[in-house]
Design goal:
The protein has twelve helices and two strands, in the order H-E-H-H-H-H-H-H-H-H-H-H-E-H. It has 303 residues and is mainly alpha-helical. It has a domain of 38 residues. Strands 1-2 form a two-stranded antiparallel sheet. Helix 2 packs parallel to helix 11 and helix 6 packs antiparallel against helix 7. It is globular. The protein starts with a helix and ends with a helix.
Length: 303
């Protein structure tokens, strides 16, 4: 009788759900045995997007640290295997992320060791600066109404990063770093940020289905290691919300990458990372019509 009640409950949830989603079951996996990891490139299609829960995403991602990084590294490797023509670009993105984190740590060390301020102080001011810049983005960089090529993307990102530099320098000066030193720090970081953004845009243009994987992986590998990069990458739509909120976050993803990653997708991947592996697809398709909550409820009933 208990099973029957659970079954009926699951069917009712499925019936009244109006949005398609790929259901992922909790895997019994271990990071120590990569051979047991299933394919990670399923697309999470839950369209839940709430500004109220977005900050929680960043806190959870940062607190999970190593688990998120391992998951991100795995899904990128999975993408390399699935999209051979994207392998070189993905490798370049990973290398640029490594260099960026190294340069950012140098700046953070300067804030703490030479100027006696906390990285949190810098983050708080930088978040305000990037928030102001986000408000200017739609007017200053409207959509061209067509797909941009690599050269156009290079020019666009260079222009935006000039504005980002101003915000970073103002934030750094506010925590006691001399302006000249602040510019030196950002000039060392800027080429790597630009390479990540441009290459990600190129890859998504060539392989649209890789958007979810690529954008999450960049967040997963960069943010836990350097929290102050969150406002900068948030400006470009990385995460369910960063320096930008709600519709503005969706606009940034669409404007710069031609993609919109619903908030539910970010949380689904975070949940998968927290379980020590990647979600195993057990159902898919537009006809499925079952929400993430239904999947979790039904799977818990079978334990």
């Amino acid at each position: 009788m208990l099973f029957s009640t659970r079954f009926i409950g699951c069917q009712l949830i499925a019936l009244f759900s109006v949005l398609p989603i790929v259901i992922y079951a909790k895997p019994t996996l271990s990071w120590s045995n990569p051979a047991t990891w299933p394919n990670a490139l399923g697309v999470y299609q839950n369209t839940w997007h709430s500004e109220d829960v977005a900050p929680n995403f960043w806190e959870r991602a940062a607190s999970m640290g190593g688990a998120v990084q391992k998951y991100a590294e795995h899904v990128l490797q999975d993408a390399i295997l699935k999209y051979a023509s994207a392998a070189s670009g993905i490798t370049d993105v990973k290398l640029s992320m490594s260099h960026l984190i190294e340069r950012t740590h140098i700046m953070e060390a300067s804030v703490v060791e030479q100027h006696g301020r906390s990285v949190h102080d810098l983050y708080e001011i930088l978040a305000v600066e990037m928030g102001r810049l986000a408000d200017e983005m739609k007017e200053d960089f409207p959509s061209p109404g067509r797909a941009e090529n690599h050269d156009e993307r290079q020019i666009l990102m260079a222009k935006i990063l000039l504005k980002v530099e101003g915000g970073v320098v103002r934030a750094a000066v506010a925590v006691g770093i001399p302006e000249d030193e602040a510019r030196v720090h950002f000039e060392a970081m800027e080429p790597h940020i630009r390479d990540i953004l441009v290459t990600a845009g190129d890859l998504i243009e060539q392989h649209p289905t890789i958007a979810d994987v690529l954008l999450f992986s960049i967040v997963g590998m960069v943010v836990p290691q350097s929290w102050i990069l969150r406002p900068i990458f948030g400006l470009f739509g990385f995460g369910p919300a960063g320096s930008v909120k709600g519709k503005a976050a969706a606009w940034a993803q669409s404007r710069f990458f031609g993609a919109y990653i619903p908030a539910g997708s970010w949380f689904a991947r975070l949940q998968s990372a927290s379980m020590g592996g990647v979600g195993k697809k057990i159902g898919a398709g537009i006809g499925a019509g079952i929400g993430l909550g239904a999947g979790l409820l039904c799977s818990s009933g079978r334990r």
